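User: Show me a protein chain along with its predicted structure.
Assistant: Here is one chain, sequence first, then structure tokens.
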Amino acid sequence: MGAQLRVYKRRIQAVTATKKITKAMEMIAASRIVKAQRKVSASMPYAAELTRAVTAVATGSTTNHPLTTEAEAPARAAVLLITSDRGLAGGYSANALKAAERLRERLAAEGKEVDAYIVGRKGVAYYGFRERKVAESWTGFTDSPEYSDAKRVAAPLIEAIQKDTAEGGVDELHIVFTEFVSMMTQNAVDDRMLPLSLDKAAQESTAKGEILPLFDFEPSAEDVLDALLPRYVESRIYNALLQAAASEHAARRRAMKSATDNAGDLIKSLSRLANAARQAEITQEISEIVGGAGALSDASAGSDK
């Protein structure tokens, strides 16, 4: 019994130490969510106005540009997948990977080759384990991205969309990330960044009661679109990175809270088992004392006779 009690005590100590770690990680993640939410909110107006400006230029001109012009027979697409660098975030990265797999299958069914661009160690490890080719990958900033990180990610994608497919370029640019809806809800989504869907952008502006302005373009609409292309891609990627970071922190906080609660329940269960073992040990000792006392009493009675 003594050995069993020691086992329970060691397990309680181990689970208690784990509970302290998960509680600390939960509090850290909760504190980072607020900062990440502020960054997401701050990036929204710039991204919305930039999309509005691009839509206005494209609808007000007849120029053909990779930012707005659909290829006649698109044969190649680039997919940017945003995952996390670290684990302990529940199904955060797994959900993004599943969304990327669904997009990959859909594009393949349309007869398009897919070039993968990966952000985050989890995505890189997933593709590496399956020996899939990755065009570019970036790690080390998923939990706190900066605009400079978005520019680094956007550079090869902009270069690819501007090239001819015969030279290794792509006709479409898609992004898969986790959209931050609320503290309890984060959805893995895929979105086509380029070519920009002008009908969709115009419908969104109309739904908000906005009227697209009319512009005169100097030196030309094509030059304006050339200048806006990198800004548009960078802002979309930056916003996606920020939403993904907020979603990662929210998922980690939820996972760590669940782990902390489970550790507390396990400690209670182990404490009950330890108490039962201690009680059984005390009962056995009392039984042995009573039995020994009875044996001594019987021996003394026999010697008196």
